[in-house]
Specification:
The protein is an alpha/beta fold. It is about 30% helix and about 20% strand. The protein folds into two domains: about 10-175, 3-Layer(aba) Sandwich (Peroxisomal Thiolase, Chain A, domain 1); about 180-330, Thiolase/Chalcone synthase (Peroxisomal Thiolase, Chain A, domain 1, 3-Layer(aba) Sandwich), CATH 3.40.47.10. Strand 12 and strand 13 form a beta hairpin. The protein binds oxa(dethia)-CoA.
């Protein structure tokens, strides 16, 4: 009998949707006053993927969903729910999950979106695990998808170099043995809501009808302050997720964290006493893909043969709101 709590649910399939367009640091040098050296040394990012005009977030969700369902060998009609963590939906409504439901033929699923910034996928995983534990569902498709390109201010060098577009999907089903989701913890703190936000088409912009022209549609971030809080909260969340899983930090084989900044990732690994050889990073290829970052990283880590059966993986994420989440999954 392995150490740790008994899981209620497990991931049976993973998939991704990644735009073809690559935007390198050299490309950005031509758009804003920045350098490859600054971006690489301060963030770890070398390039990111960018959606094309005319595409929708759901296009990438559908691609990711089909791949995840194929791996899980699950008929879409057996899905009880589709939950998408996103702050860049196709439209104000209906939810992006509705378009995914229709496209994949999941006619027995309830479908909705979750707004929790970078933590959206983990918040959705929390819901899926809880619903399965409560025996209200058997199979749930959990997607994290972000197409931030339309809300990035391409004249603001402090933010436009950071983000990329992607979607990642996981099929979550009932656990059958001691492998699966051992813990998911989530949290928020609204005190710092004005450090990272986008007014967009929200009611907060209603008083200024020309809001769309005067910059309301753009994402704004005080990166420095966010950084400071992220390091502290991620350590606390990582420790909580490990404890809830019934494990010690030394039982963790892999840290597959939110890919926002290599310096944040290194600080988290250090505080968890994990050597960098046990940390998975793909930030150099994709930048910060917000809520897609963790499922995309898990997908790629597994493709590289890094999450072997029986190994314990810790994921942690921090985003605007603030919101945060952590999870320990045994593969
Ligand atoms: O995923 C959601 C959560 N988000 C995060 O976790 C992001 C957290 N924050 C960060 O990752 C970092 O704070 C950033 C990467 C955003 C910024 O790094 P930093 O080391 O905190 O830089 P800074 O904002 O303190 O700026 C340092 C300098 C400034 O110049 P001065 O005032 O020292 O002359 C900036 O104007 O770097 C300048 N700068 C740039 N220079 C070249 C800011 N952006 C750029 C740029 N290229 N793109």
């Amino acid at each position: 009998m392995s150490k740790g709590v008994k899981p209620f649910s497990r991931i049976t399939g993973l998939g991704v949707g990644i735009p073809e367009n690559v935007l390198t640091n050299a490309d950005l040098e031509k758009i804003v006053d920045t350098t490859d050296d600054w971006i690489s040394s301060r963030t770890g990012i070398k390039e990111r993927r960018i959606m094309k005009k005319g595409e929708r977030t759901s296009d990438y969700c559908i691609k990711a969903a089909k791949e995840a369902l194929a791996e899980a060998q699950l008929d879409p009609e057996l899905l009880d729910a589709i939950i998408i963590g996103t702050i860049s939906p196709d439209m104000r409504f209906p939810a992006t999950a509705i378009y995914v439901q229709e496209a994949i033929g999941a006619k027995n699923a309830a479908a909705w979106d979750v707004s929790a910034t970078c933590s959206g996928w983990l918040y959705s995983l929390f819901m899926a695990d809880t619903m399965i534990a409560a025996k209200r569902a058997k199979n749930i498709l959990v997607i994290g998808a972000e197409m931030l390109t339309p809300m990035v201010d391409w004249t603001d060098r402090a933010t436009c170099v950071l983000f990329g577009d992607a979607a990642g999907a996981a099929v979550v089903s009932e656990a059958v043995d001691d492998r699966g989701i051992l813990s998911v913890v989530i949290g928020s703190n609204g005190t710092f809501a004005d450090l990272l936000y986008c007014v967009g088409h929200g009611t907060a912009g209603y008083a200024t009808p020309s809001g769309q022209e005067n910059g309301n549609r753009f994402l704004r971030m005080n990166g420095n302050e966010v950084f400071r809080h992220a390091v502290r909260v991620l350590e606390r969340t990582a420790k909580e997720a490990v404890e809830r899983a019934g494990l010690e930090p030394s039982d963790i084989d892999w840290l597959v964290p939110h890919q926002a900044n290599t310096r944040i990732i290194k600080a988290t690994a250090e505080r968890m006493n994990l050597p960098m050889e046990q940390v998975f990073m793909n930030i150099h290829k994709y930048g910060n893909t917000s809520t897609a970052s963790v499922p995309l990283a898990i997908y790629e880590a597994r493709k590289e043969g890094k999450l072997l059966p029986g190994q314990n993986m810790l994921s942690v994420v921090f985003g605007g709101g603030f919101t945060w989440g952590g999870s320990v999954i045994r593969f």
